[in-house]
C-alpha cells in the first residue's frame, strides 16, 4: 500500500495560468494547418476583430507569440524613445518589473512610491502631472491588477486625474490579470495602450499576448525611437498573416482563442465581471473569517481595492508562505501562488479567475483551510463555511429564497421558513 | 448530393508548420499547471538540457515564447550594437528578411549578392573577410536552409572560410528549417549562435523558438548595445522558471517539446538526417522526372545544394504558382507553400520535414502530379512512379532484395528474381 498515489484532479489556483476549459483544449487538439490558407486566415482575422470588444475598444489589436512580458515590451518600445520619462505608480512586483523593463530599454523611470498594500492614488498622480508643466512625462504606466499584491487600481479615476492635470501623456495599462475578469473599458476610460495575455481571463494556455492600441498611441509610435522589430506595430499593421504574426502564426493558440472568445461572448463580459465579483467575494469572505492578528490576513488593506482575480494573503511571522503553498499542493492538490519579491516567504496567493465556479472555489478554500489547520495557523472561524454560505445567499436569480433559508438557519428553526 | 464535402485527411506539406505526431498532441492536451511547481520545473529543465544535443552543442540554450523571428531578433540584439556591420550572404527571402531585421535594429548590413538559385559560396565569404583587415565585420549571418529558395548552404565550409581569412567575427546561423532534419553540428562547425524553432524538424506547434549560444557569443553579449529586455540573455540566464521564460512559461509547448525530444532521441539524430535525405531524394526524383523546359523545374540548380527539408519548384511562364497551390489544396487536400518575394507567383514549395514517411511523400507527390496534369502542365514522365520506385529501392535494410526486384521488373520477367 502506498499513499503517494494521487487521485482526483488538481485545483489550479495560481494567478495564471488558469483552468483551461475542455472546449478550448479540444479546439487546440488538432493537426497543424497551412496558416496562409483561407480557412485559417478567416479564423485569425475573426480573432483579431473579436479581441476588440473584449478590450472594449475600436483601436487596433496586435497579437504576439510571446508571454505577457513580450506585450509589455511592445507597449513601451512602440511609444517611447530612450531618454523619455515615464511615471510608474507603484502597486507591487508587476509595476516594479514593468518599470525595470522600461529602464532597461533606456527610458527614465520615475516611481510614485506605494506600500504594496494599497491601489494607486489618483490624486497623487494628478499632483505629479500638474507639477510637470514642461510635459516631460511621456506616459503613465498603470498595472490594473497587480498580481503580486492583489490590489486593483481605478483605471477610470487615473484617466480623470490625467485629464484634470490637463497633461498630454500617454496612458499605458497592463490588463493581464484583469482582462475578461474585471470590468475594463479601454476607449471609455481613455487608455492608449492596453496589454493583455492569453492565460488568465482568456482561459487559454500561455504563449500569446496582446496590445490594444489607441489612435493617439499609433501616432506616437511613428516617432518612438526604441529599436524594435518583432514588436514593431508598423511592421505588423497588415492583413497578411505571415507579417501580422511576425513569422509563423501560433496556430493552436489562435484556435484556442477563437473558442475562448466564443465562450466569452456566450456568457457576456458583464456576466463574466459579475461572476468574478461574486466568486472573489466568497474568497474574501473566507479570508475575513479566518483572519486573526496572529494568523492569516489580507495583504490589500482596503476592501474596495481587492482584486476580483487574485487574493494575496499574508502569513503569520513564523510561517513561510512557501510552506503553505507546498503543503497545499502536496497534500490537498491545490496549486497556489507564492509571495513575490518583498512578499517572498511572507504570503501566498489564491488565483480566482477565468473558467471558475462556486464548488471549485469552495474546494480550493477548503484545501487552504485544511492546510492552515495542519500547519497550526490559528483561524478565527471556518472560512470555507462562510464562503459557502455567501455563495448560497448570492446565487443569481435565487436571492429571495436563499435569504429566507439563511434567516431560518440563523434562527435554528425550520418552522418559520416561508415561501415569501 | 454535394461534392464540397471533404473526406480523408489533409496532406500538410507547407515548409512549416509540419505534421504534429499524435503523441505530441496528446502530450499537450492537458490542463494548465503551476509552472513554478516541482513537476513542471523538472520537465522544463530537461527540455533545456535536451535541446543541447539536438543542436550538438555544450553551449547555452535560451527558449522563447515567440515565432522563429523572435529568436532571430534575440540572436542579433544580444551580440550586436547599433552601427556594427554584418555580412549577409544572400540565399533567398529568409537571408534578406533576417538582414532587414538587423538593419531595422540599427545594424549596417552588407549583402553578398546571390541569385536565389545557389547556396552561398564560401570562397566569396573568405575573400570578403580577408579584405576586412580592420575587422569591421562583426558577424556573418547564414541561413542554413533558406525555406524560400530551398537551397542548403555548407555551414562547416563557411566556418572554414572564416578561419582561413583569420577573421574574429561571430558566426550566426539560422537553423529553423534544418534543425532535426539535416545534419547540424553547432560546436564542431564553430557556430556562435544557432537559431531554431518548434514547428519544423521539432514537430511541435509554432510558438516557441530557441537560440543556442557559444561562450564566445555569451561574452560578446556583455558589450552588445542593441536595447533589449524580452530577448536579453543576461536576464534569462537562471534556473528560475519565471525569469528563464521571461514571464509565464509556454507550458503546453514545453510538454510538446518534451515528447518531441523523446521521439527524436528514440529515432536518433543520424537516423533522422538519413530519413530526410531519403525522403527528399524521392521528392527530387519526382521533380527530376517531371521536368521539361516548358514545364516545372527545380529552383535550386545544383543537386548537391538542394535542401532535405523543402523543395522549391518553378512553374512554367504561363502558370501562377499560387494556382498550383490553390488547386492542390482544394481538390487534392495537399497543402503546399507558395513562392516568396521575387519568386511570388513563379513557384510553389513542397515541405518534406519532420514527422514524415514514404507513403505520406508519395501521396503528396501524387496530389501535386494530378494537380499539374489538371492544370495542363506538360510532364516528361510520372514523378510519383519514379519516387515510389526510388523509395522501394532504398528501403533501409532491404537494399539487396529490392535491387533484385527492380532488376527483374526492369527486365519484364519474374523468372530471374533470385534471393541473392
Helicity of chain A, in percent?
Answer: 40-55%
Q: Tell me how many strands of chain A there are.
A: 14
**Average residue-wise pLDDT of chain A:** 94
Derived structural class of chain A = alpha/beta
- The number of helices of chain A is 15
- What oligomeric state do the depicted chains represent? homodimer
Which two protein chains have the largest interface (Cβ within 8 Å of the partner's Cβ), and how many residues from each? Answer: A-B, 58 and 58 residues
Low-confidence stretches of chain A: 412-420
> Which band does the percent of strand residues of chain A land in?
15-25%
The helix/strand order of chain A is EHHEHEHEHEEEHEEEHHHHHEEHEEHHH
Shape of chain A: globular
Question: For the terminal residues of chain A, how far apart are their CA atoms?
Answer: 55 Å
Strand order of the largest sheet of chain A: 2-10-9-8-5-3-4
Largest sheet of chain A: 7 strands, mixed
**CA radius of gyration of chain A:** 23 Å
